[in-house]
## 1
Amino acid sequence: MADENGNNKGQKGLTSVLEKVKGDTKALKEKATEEIKIYKEIDRTQLYKSVFRVKHDDTPRGRALGILTNVFLHLHPAKINRDAVRYSYTWGMGGISFYLFIVLTFTGVLLMFYYHPTKGQAFRDILYLEADVPFGKLLRNMHRWAAHLMVITVWLHMFRVFLTGSYKKPREFNWVVGVVLMLLTLLLSFTGYLLPDDQLGFWAVTVGTGMARATPLLGNEGPFGPQLGMNPFNDIRFALLGGSIVDANALLRSYIWHCIGIPILISIFMAVHFWRVRKDGGISGPAPVMLESEIKELKRGAVVAPTKAGGH
Amino acid sequence: MDWQQLWEIASTPDNIPIVALLFLVPFYTWYAFRQARANDQLIGALEGSPELAKTHHRKTLPFKPEWPREVHVWPYLLRIEFLAAIIVTVILMIWSITLNAPLEEPANPNFTMNPAKAPWYFLGLQEMLVYFDPWMAGVVLPSLILVGLAAIPYMDENPLGAGYYTLKQRKWSIAAFCFGFLVLWLTMIFIGTFIRGPGWMWFWPGQTWDHSRVVFEVNRDLPDLFFITSAWGKGILGAIVMAVYYGLAGLLVHKIITLNEFNRKIFKRMSLLQYLTLQFFLIMMMLLPLKIFIRHAFRIKYIWITPWFNI
């Protein structure tokens, strides 16, 4: 009896444990299914919400928040004029120039892994890059052609901005920033020209910096330069090259300007350029045409109006 | 006709951007002028009928009053930007796979390249060296180009044509810019790329680059024409000629600025400083085509000779 009882008890105990485990498993399973259900809706997870912060659904609010809550996209306003997205007006050249700058930064950083800015080594690095580095040739080609393309797109951007009169009030200063950006683009391209340390770059830079010799006042062959005590070892060309000839120091200076100095400068000016586009009231058009009879009287010297076009 | 030579120049990988410009610039110029013409027709119609001017939406683009004024950036702008990025990437990929970046022999200061050309975007400046001394072509004129460009918004007192393509309302400013950009800057780059060969000599497209070619070009200076030999005489004559040029060119510019009723209206809005700055930059810009002309027509190299500089 006792045994039976004991057995019964034992059996009972086992079944209850089994049942408990079964129940627990079921509950666990239910919980897991429930959770998986939630994980399937990825935008309800904590991880997702922590990254994206707001709901991105296909509503006007969701679309606006998609732009406003993204650090990269918030350069854009949430909404723009219906006609401003037209390619025929903008040609997209400013945006493409910026995209090319990103491409150039990306390929440029990769190229820096394979390059030493020292005489002798520099040229060998290019040969190595072209022959042995996986996709090295493609990398170098892409960097070069993107650079050329960027010069073209920057010029076409300037051409478009002029033809649409977009430099006119209140965007005068942003045009000036644009001129500086164009100069920096050309200088970036030019400083990169010497880096392969081949005949092409060497002679182009020799010709280019040779002109600096003739700088008025600051060059040893320029007007009034010798009178001010300029010689080949203290004039502006010496400062550019770090020497009186295009040699190791010129290569290093060129490298540092190309990879660090000018990229920092151009990034600062680009930030101002984009910010001013927004602050000056977004992109300039296509604006409604204005007639000659509607020209308003000019009030010169009037105090700056409190931000009428104050931006978004 | 040396097709091989022509092909060699046009197919040099570093010259591809200029070949591309040959197509891109005319295309975009046409693209802009087509829209400008459409806008000008609209402007004409609106000026003819004040009633229409009151109610018209004033664009040549499709319009319905019930359409919303603004659209969402996502997706209407971002999709265009993404598409542009993809297209540019594809173009770059194809370009980079098919054409290799140039690499010459290692740098060798003892072996001069002939012709030694600057990067293509600076060839306009190098071409200017034919007509001006390096201090002008390489330093002063480029600086003036940059400062002049930056000064454009502050000199242009015409309030019309802000934010739309037009020719009619900004005839002279567009003419001046196109002259500077298309005629001077880009043409000089084309010449520097396609025409200039060894010794920076003029070779017509298709003419063989002859490295031993010699050109007998006797250049003279302006004072030589008047048999002036003394340094003082040369300096004074040059100064006088330059002053006369400034006077005449200034007069011409003034004529254009006050050419018709509309120009005079804008002229009245200009401050003295704006007017003088505009005069200065236009006079300096015209110096280049003038110098090109007298060099080719009269073989005159310098106009003004002083012990310190020559122009």
Note: The CA atoms of residues 19 and 69 of chain B lie 41 Å apart.
## 2
Amino acid sequence: MAVDAGRARRLPSLGGERLREAGVGYAFVLVPLGVFALFQLYPMAYAFYVSAHEWGGIEGKLGYVGLANYRELWHDQAFWTWPPERATALWNTVYYAVLVVPLQMALGLTMALIVNQAIRGRTFFRAAYYFPALVSSAAISAIAIYLLNADGLVNAAISAVLGRDFDHPWFGDADTALESIVVLDAWTTSGTMMLFYLAALQSIPTDVYEAAAIDKAGAWRTFWKITFPLLKPAHFFVVVVSVIGALKLFDQAFIISTGSGGPAGSTMTAVMYVYTVTIKEFNYGYGATVGVVLFLIIFTLTLIQRLLFGRAEIGY
Amino acid sequence: MADREEVAAPPVAAVRELALEGAAAVGAPVAIPPRTFGERARRVVAYGLMITLAVLYLVPFAYTVSTSLKTQAEAAAGFDLWPSNPSLAAFREIWSSENVSFVTFFKNSLLLATSITAINLFLATLGGYAFARLRFPLREPLFLLVLGTLMIPDQLRLVPIYLMMVDFPVTHWNLTQTRHGYVFFGTSIALATSLFLMRQYFLTIPKDYEEAAKLDGAGYFKTYWRVMLPLAAPAVAAVAILTFQGIWNEFFWANLLLGQGSSSEWTVQIGLAQFRFTYQTLWPQLMAAATIAIIPVLVVYVFFQRYFVAGVAAAGVKG
């Protein structure tokens, strides 16, 4: 009886309690949501708005132009060409992504397999492989400029191997500048990919390997027949992260080319193009347009990848 | 495939153990103690590959430090890893001189990274707790919205953010070239990831603790502050470290919002890029600047490595 009375008395206040909980909940998430509204959602809408205007750096907003900026971009040979040509911002970026993504994945997976073994010093190796991923893009760029200049360490090593003087300016030649940045970024980003693969490797149930061991499948065969296919979700995830990261390339190309995108436009990336149009040419309307188009490209890619990812069976 | 259940019975525990350490996961035949010649050869190859990779990954940093301790003449002359006459002259030159003052950049970077980390921690733990535990209408859609902001790329935000920061809505403040402006905006850089990590961690904490606190008459804030936050210490550490490192290293927005004007507001990363633009091939000084940019994250990494790994892996799992 006493218990019943107590419950009866508390019931109405429970409704108030619910209300209070909801109020406190909103209060706790209010500031973060405000930050996102102000610096993510509003700018997104604002970008579309600006892209529909002629908008100069000094004059400010000059007038509504509809899709004129988009039409200009369609014919902008510095942004893209058809058929694809290098030294255009979009195709440079695509070319970079096509090279760097498989390289990052292969390195990341190899390193994950290595540090996932019961071997002496695995903590050291994991730390060593991950270390470049911690270092800032500015420091990495400075170090790369030092190592890859015509008189740098890399050329000294190549000279020693070849037995003759080798002094190729890696970043000074349009044929090797972006490719050198590919290697540079594979070096620094593969550590992060390694951690993703490592997490995936450790979640594979062991019984599949027991079966393989009983079948006397060799390590090589076991890897290709079992481990690699079972990592499918991880591959997809790493591809998404890696592609989105590749399409964002800015810091290294900007610092190494002293902001020019050179030599001969070979390191002008899509993001650098937005930056150049906006900050150097004061053409805000056009800069916003390039940003919107890049966003739409990335968004479409992500959707396609999500669809593929959604369909992928998790194999165990 | 062989009949698993029957054979797997006795060694299963041993195999599990091995697999946790990972030998099985690589596909090496499990539980065969005497090594064959082939296996030994494979180990040699594996170690060779591991060591080569580690050397390739770390040698550039060894040369960075080594060159920063050399004179210009010695740096130009060759690549001895050990400087013949190590000196801190290059550091002294860039740390505080008429032309470059990395001491200013260092202080700025430290100030920005610690302030943004502190703000992020408070907002992310409080918000993460609410998203994990408190029931309120639209909680899930709002959380999805937070995750959705991760899909808005920087290249889309460049122009609008720049315009906003030059002439802030309503107030007409110019928030570029000011550290407080960067802190204000910088809060948005890592907040979504931090919120996500904190929410995921709070979800794993058993509810008993909160219920006990509630019985003691603690309110929501007190429960968060006194009970949940201490229990979430590992996640708090991971978020703090990842945010600090992210902001310390951040170049894109810092360059846009602080790098166009007076060097008194620059961060270490801006200073480093500008130093390279201006002085091209002063290798010892450039490498000294790079070393200054690396040391704080290195220190944090050495002391908190396990939180780093846990944080990156957890942030990755969100998919």
Note: The first helix of chain B runs from residue 4 to 8.
